[in-house]
Design a protein that fits this description.
With 268 residues, the chain is α/β, with parallel strands linked by helices. It has 8 helices and 11 strands. Helix 4 crosses helix 8. The radius of gyration is 23 Å and the shape is elongated.
Length: 268
C-alpha cells in the first residue's frame, strides 16, 4: 500500500490521472496524483497544468460538480509551452477504494538480479529502490546484507552463488558485481548456460574494466562459449561518459543503463 492509499483511511481524496495525451506533455498516460484537502501525493508533471488540476480537484473534493475528464491544451493560455494536449480524469475516492487503488496504481516492476553485496552493490540497491524494479539481491555471504531494506529489494543467501541463476524470474536483468572474480565468472557462465537453454534473460551486465572482460572472455571461451553467446554480456557496465569510481557514481550510471534498457524493451 502506498502513501496515497494509506491516507485514504482517514480522508477522502480526488485521484487525478493522465488518461491520454497528444504531442509533447510533462507525463505519460497513467501518471497520477492524489489530492487531499491538506496535501497531495504523486505528480502529473508540475507547472501550471498541475496547479489547475489541483484547483479543480479541490473544488470537486469540496462538493463541486465537474467533468470526469477535462482536456488541457499546453499552450500560452495555460502558461506552458509544451504544445501538447493532456486529458485528465478526476475521480472522487474514499477508504473503500483503497484496496483496488493500491493494485491499480502499483507500477509494473522489472526483475533485477543483483549479485554482490559489497559497496557498489549496496549503492545500487539504494539507487534502484525508488525505481520500477523488483530487486533480488544475492550473495554467498549470508551476513552481508544491511537491515531496513525497501519493499522492492529482497535478499537471498546462495552458496554457491551461481546456483541462484537457475530460478531467476524470466526476463530478469542480471548485474554481476560480487567480491570475487571467481564468483563473477561462475555467475556469468551460469547466465550464459541459461541463455543457451532458455534465452530468457534480458540483460547480463558485469562490473569491471575492458581488461577484466578480455580475461573473462578468454576463460569463457575455454568453457565452450562462442562469440555470439559472449556478445550477450555487457562489460564494463554503466552509461558511457559518466566518470568516477565512487560506488554511488557507478550505481547511478548502472541504474540509468537499466532504465535505458527497460525503455528499449517497452518500445519493442
Amino acid at each position: 500500500m502506498n502513501e496515497f492509499t494509506a491516507r485514504l483511511a482517514a480522508q477522502d481524496a480526488v485521484l487525478v490521472t493522465v488518461e491520454s495525451s497528444q504531442g509533447s506533455v510533462p507525463r505519460e498516460a497513467g501518471a497520477w496524483m492524489g489530492v487531499f484537502a491538506d496535501g497531495l501525493c504523486g505528480t502529473i508533471g508540475g507547472g501550471h497544468l498541475e496547479l489547475q488540476a489541483l484547483e479543480e480537484a479541490r473544488r470537486q473534493l469540496a462538493g463541486g460538480t465537474g467533468e470526469s475528464v477535462i482536456r488541457y491544451a499546453l499552450g500560452p493560455s495555460l502558461g506552458q509551452c509544451c504544445g501538447g494536449v493532456v486529458n485528465l480524469r478526476f475521480e472522487r475516492v474514499t477508504a473503500a477504494d483503497a484496496g483496488p487503488l493500491a493494485r491499480r496504481l502499483a507500477p509494473a516492476l522489472c526483475p533485477v538480479a543483483l549479485f554482490g553485496g559489497g559497496h557498489v552493490g549496496r549503492a545500487l540497491a539504494a539507487a534502484l529502490a525508488p525505481l520500477p524494479f523488483a530487486v533480488r539481491w544475492i550473495d554467498s555471504r549470508d551476513e552481508i546484507f544491511p537491515a531496513g531494506l525497501p519493499a522492492n529489494v529482497q535478499c537471498e543467501h546462495s552458496d554457491p552463488v551461481q546456483a541462484a541463476v537457475a530460478d531467476l524470474a524470466p526476463g530478469s536483468h542480471v548485474i554481476v558485481m560480487s567480491f570475487s572474480h571467481a564468483e563473477d565468472l561462475d555467475v556469468v557462465a551460469a547466465c550464459l548456460l541459461r541463455q543457451r537453454r532458455a534465452n530468457d534473460l534480458r540483460f547480463i551486465g558485469l562490473i569491471g574494466s575492458k581488461t577484466k572482460w578480455a580475461t573473462f572472455r578468454h576463460r569463457l571461451e575455454e568453457r565452450g562459449f562462442g562469440k555470439p553467446e559472449l556478445a550477450q554480456v555487457t562489460c564494463p557496465i554503466g552509461l558511457a561518459g559518466i566518470q568516477g569510481k565512487q560506488p554511488e557514481v557507478i550505481a547511478v550510471s548502472v541504474a540509468a543503463q537499466l532504465l535505458q534498457v527497460r525503455n528499449w524493451e517497452a518500445a519493442e
